[in-house]
Amino acid sequence: MISSVKAGLTTSALLKSIKRRTLVPDNQNTFSDQDFIDLMNEEMMIGIVPSVLQTKEEYFIFRQITPLVPDKSNYPIPERALANKLREICFRDTASTNFNNEYEMTQIAIDDRYTGLSNGTGSSDFTGFRRFYVMGSDVVLHPNVGPTPYGALAFYYYLRPNTLVKDSQVASIVAINRTSGEISLSSIPSGYTLYSAASNNVLLTGFDFVKAKSPHNILSIDVTATNINNTTKVITVNPSSIPKDLEIGDYMTLAGQTCIPNIPTELHMVLAQRVAQRVLEAIGDSEGLNNATAKVAEMEGKLSTMLDNRVEGAPRKVVNRALMTGVARNRRR
């Protein structure tokens, strides 16, 4: 069932909220709407996101499956991983996108690659590649991948929230055809262009699917369009790339963009207040700044209460990840 309730604040609603909090008139020349949006994006990354990550409640987690390639041992950490950091990496016994057996991998120091550590192939508990080290922005498998590898790597990482843009630069979904891959949109923004390969233009990098409902998470990233019909307002993609959770009312955005912050709805007001604080500081309103600072402190003091312990009735249990012999835990299904 599709809910008609959209409590989250899009960029336009956030702009109105910030102007109310600062009493900045619409006809002022100090700040443009884009200036406010830039401040929102800054505060998302330096204030909101670190606060959410501190709760250790697995917000922003995203999974990417990368099949192993013959004679290729280096695999880059996904570009959109927050701070180029992984939450977890696993070896999968097939390259299918369905959830198959996953096996924990152990990180070794780069100088340990000389020790001749084996990957343990042949043991039922040590299937495939199980060790790696990090070099620059790459995960390097140890030992090296041979000419006939099987399986894939599952990268679990904190997905960097998309950059906020104006509402007019984002389209909402009005119909989904999962057979043909056709996505009908409310509009085709000017940036939604599919360049022609025949004229040596660059193909558009892709689209993201973003939930309209809280926590407004990103369902799928870098989805390639095969056709854009500006008349019917339909974009065609590979049917297999349409997320199962995608609904009418969700957003199809340019890759890396969104009109709604990718955080729980309750934090949208905190974001607006943090930007208001920055604006009042910039215009030299000392009294307003003091009041805004006190309000930010009050809001953030209650953040942990809202975000911590997401499943109160099932407290997290401590799991022994390794036996005394140093052997990692068994496979996960």
Task: Explain briefly what this protein structure is.
This protein is an alpha+beta fold and 333 residues long. Helix content is 21%, strand content 25%. Strand 6 and strand 7 (138-142) form a beta hairpin.
Question: Explain this structure to me?
Answer:
The strands form four sheets. The protein has a seven-stranded antiparallel sheet, with no helix packed on it. Strands 1-8-3-4 form a four-stranded antiparallel sheet, with no helix packed on it. Strands 2-7-6-5 form a four-stranded mixed sheet, with no helix packed on it. It has two domains: 152 residues, no CATH class; 99 residues, no CATH class. Strand 6 and strand 7 form a beta hairpin. Helix content is 21%, strand content 25%.
Q: What order do the SSEs take from the amino end to the carboxyl end, as H and E?
A: HHEEEEEEEEEEEEEEEEEHHH
Largest sheet: 7 strands, antiparallel
- Count of alpha and pi helical runs: 5
Report mean pLDDT, rounded to a whole number. 86
What number of structural domains do the residues give? 2
> Which band does the percent of strand residues land in?
15-25%
Let me know the number of strands.
17
Distance between the termini: 30 Å
> In terms of per-residue confidence, which ranges show pLDDT below 50 for 5 or more consecutive residues?
119-126, 324-330
User: Main sheet: which strands, in order across?
Assistant: 13-12-16-10-11-15-14
How does the helix and strand content classify structurally?
alpha+beta
Silhouette: globular
Task: Estimate the helix proportion, in percent.
Answer: 10-25%
Oligomer: single chain
